[in-house]
Amino acid sequence: MEKHIVVLPGDGIGPEVTKAAKGVLETVAEQFGHRFTFETHEIGGAAIDNQGTPLPEDTISACKKADGILLGAVGGPKWDSLPGHMRPEKGLLGIRKQLGLFANLRPVKGFKPLLHASPLKPEVVEGSDLLIVRELTGGLYFGEPSERRNNGKEVVDTLAYSRYEMERIVDKAFQSAQVRRNHLTSVDKANVLESSRMWREVVEEKKQDYPDVNVEHMLVDAAAMKLVTNPGYFDVIVTENMFGDILSDEASVLTGSLGMLPSASIRQDGLGLYEPVHGSAPDIAGEDKANPLATILSAAMMLRHSFNMNEEADEIEAAVHSVLNNKYHTADLDINGGSQVSGSEMAKKISEQMNSHDTTENIMRCYA
Ligand SMILES: NC(=O)C1=CN([C@@H]2O[C@H](COP(=O)(O)OP(=O)(O)OC[C@H]3O[C@@H](n4cnc5c(N)ncnc54)[C@H](O)[C@@H]3O)[C@@H](O)[C@H]2O)C=CC1
Ligand SMILES: CC(C)CC(=O)C(=O)O
Ligand SMILES: [Mg+2]
């Protein structure tokens, strides 16, 4: 199959982790006889520096024509003093909005060899396998007005949603639950926020269409607690943009590192932007220390969700498992008696593992 992939490295560790994932995609293409072509474009701080805007027009038009988009991360202290509308993060928010990527799927599943890498007790982490379905193009990150007022003595941000925006993400979450364990937890703050009360109404209406799914409501503060005390309780979590952003970083603790969590930002027709959950990690950028596995696993999600290449995606996930099982890990992970490798070495090991054709283990056994 022929597929055209747009790569948006972005800032900080973004270029390192996207380079790593691109290498693994090239291995997939070789192994399975596909032809993947790549086109790189700027976004975020790099685009501000070179083109004066965090989201250049040519980046948008290339993404619109792509079969799949792979993004690293944006932002960093260099651009922190810019006004809000000029910041690197606006580039990422902008591309999600312009492409209509309303559903952010963040699977949280620990690899077995990393069971002890989490600071949580192994018996708490073991068996956790959840999916956060985060609304991605509405809510506080997009609401207007968002501004300083009264000579800087006041400030306002706006949390706005249309009923339609809620309905489509809630539908997506019910459908995700149907192909998993039929358990949906809708997370909100309905005791305080009007938007959350509408969100609950939408979930209540939609549940009539999915009678096989067991659905419940949970307040976000309680959900945050339960995620680290009883993560095995959850199957699919659906929530609005900011709550999903925060809960997914928290959930990464289950997997041992933020550097392990992949994500897919998708719309109904299958186009997707695939991006690690983490940010640009300026504290380790340029040191070849970053864990590339979140981005490599995001590339596997691209193969599965946008290209319908399930066997190829399985192959990547099995290779990640094998390499971790052989106790190779990057600096963010702690594997007892393991060998620490750099980010680029880790990526090389994944490709080598795939080329060795020794990743025949049942994928179901990869996860804790
Ligand atoms: N999707 C995106 O582009 C995102 C961008 N950001 C931006 O990134 C910048 C830094 O934000 P932070 O709050 O520091 O969040 P961050 O996610 O970049 O880093 C948080 C911590 O996790 C570590 N970390 C993150 N990814 C890692 C990886 N792959 N391997 C090893 N360690 C990893 C970092 O070293 C840091 O200690 C900010 O400018 C922020 O706006 C933050 C989150 C998401
Ligand atoms: C620009 C931010 C909203 C990025 C982020 O933290 C995320 O999407 O997880
Ligand atoms: Mg985030």
From TrEMBL:
Residue sites binding Mg(2+) per the record:
221, 245, 249
Reaction(s) catalysed by this chain's protein = (2R,3S)-3-isopropylmalate + NAD(+) = 4-methyl-2-oxopentanoate + CO2 + NADH
Pathway(s) this gene product operates in, as recorded in its UniProt entry:
Amino-acid biosynthesis; L-leucine biosynthesis; L-leucine from 3-methyl-2-oxobutanoate: step 3/4
Q: Give every Isopropylmalate dehydrogenase-like domain span.
A: 4-350
Entry's EC annotation: 1.1.1.85
Q: Which UniProt keywords apply?
A: Amino-acid biosynthesis, Branched-chain amino acid biosynthesis, Cytoplasm, Leucine biosynthesis, Magnesium, Manganese, Metal-binding, NAD, Oxidoreductase
List positions binding substrate: 96, 106, 134, 221
Q: Does the keyword NAD apply?
A: yes
Cofactor section: Mn(2+); Mg(2+)
Subcellular locations according to the entry: Cytoplasm
Task: Please name the Pfam families in this protein's record.
Answer: Iso_dh (PF00180)
Catalytic class of the enzyme: oxidoreductase
Stated role: Catalyzes the oxidation of 3-carboxy-2-hydroxy-4-methylpentanoate (3-isopropylmalate) to 3-carboxy-4-methyl-2-oxopentanoate. The product decarboxylates to 4-methyl-2 oxopentanoate.
Protein's name in the database: 3-isopropylmalate dehydrogenase
Q: Which organism is it from?
A: Halobacillus seohaensis
